[in-house]
């Protein structure tokens, strides 16, 4: 189970969410807002469950602050907002998942576990990607779970990294959005496949200098995406 940092200003909601997660085996540390130094909180927790409507510093800014200092730290947004604009804005700010209130503890527990599965580095064996693969100036170090562009480390979120690895596994293959969603977010995860577009936009901004002349990832309108790098 996980050490959960719950950032929620509504004390009744925080109490209910905390109780439900603790009953399922998690430890929960609650803070009412995202103001102040987050570093000590991140150091002793494994995942953030984050409300958007926080006083002082809203949830989007908290996401950006965490991503600036901890690019791979898991973030699950838990909010009453269900508009597409809020979902997209949260994912663009760096959230790994988006859950709309009200939600049962078991569903939130499943979402937390799914995010942790995606963000924790897999155990690498001699037969599973224990190597660095290079495509022109782009290198993917599977053992260290790091990506380099022209020898400079690229700061990718776990979702961006998993998306890149999935595409680069079969260069030239065309993946639909639904396929990528199942691979990156997990087959047991139900959500909006438009999250793929958001993750892809962020990923391409980091590894493709000119999106109009994509060096590594090509968008095939109406179908999906393919990796175009050459080893």
From TrEMBL:
Q: Name one GO biological process term.
A: regulation of DNA-templated transcription
**UniProt GO cellular component terms:** cytosol; protein-DNA complex
| Residue ranges the record marks as coiled coil | none
Q: Which residues form the OmpR/PhoB-type domain?
A: 130-229
Q: Keywords in UniProt for this one?
A: DNA-binding, Phosphoprotein, Transcription, Transcription regulation, Two-component regulatory system
Q: Which CDD domains match?
A: REC_OmpR, trans_reg_C
Instruction: Write the protein's name.
Output: Transcriptional regulator
Species annotation: Luteipulveratus mongoliensis
């Amino acid at each position: 189970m996980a050490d959960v940092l719950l950032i929620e200003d509504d004390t009744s909601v925080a109490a209910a969410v905390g109780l439900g997660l603790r009953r399922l085996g998690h430890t929960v540390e609650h803070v009412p807002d995202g103001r102040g130094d987050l570093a000590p909180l991140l150091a002793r927790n494994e995942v953030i469950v984050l409300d958007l409507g926080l006083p002082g510093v809203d949830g989007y800014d908290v996401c950006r602050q965490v991503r600036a200092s901890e690019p791979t730290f898991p973030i699950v947004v838990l909010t009453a907002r269900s508009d597409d604009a809020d979902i997209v804005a949260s994912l663009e700010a760096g959230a790994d998942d988006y859950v709309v209130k009200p939600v049962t503890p078991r569903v939130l527990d499943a979402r937390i576990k799914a995010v942790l599965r995606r963000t924790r580095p897999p155990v690498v064996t001699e037969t599973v990607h224990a190597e660095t693969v290079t495509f022109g100036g782009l290198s993917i170090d599977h053992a260290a779970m790091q990506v380099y562009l022209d020898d400079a480390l690229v700061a990718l979120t776990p979702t961006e990294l998993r998306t890149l690895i999935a595409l680069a596994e079969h260069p030239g293959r065309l993946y639909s959005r639904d396929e990528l969603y199942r691979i990156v977010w997990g087959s047991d995860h139900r959500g909006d496949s438009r999250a793929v577009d958001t993750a892809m936009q962020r990923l391409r901004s980091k590894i493709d200098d000119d999106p109009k002349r994509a060096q590594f990832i090509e968008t095939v309108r109406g179908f999906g995406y393919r990796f175009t790098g050459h080893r």
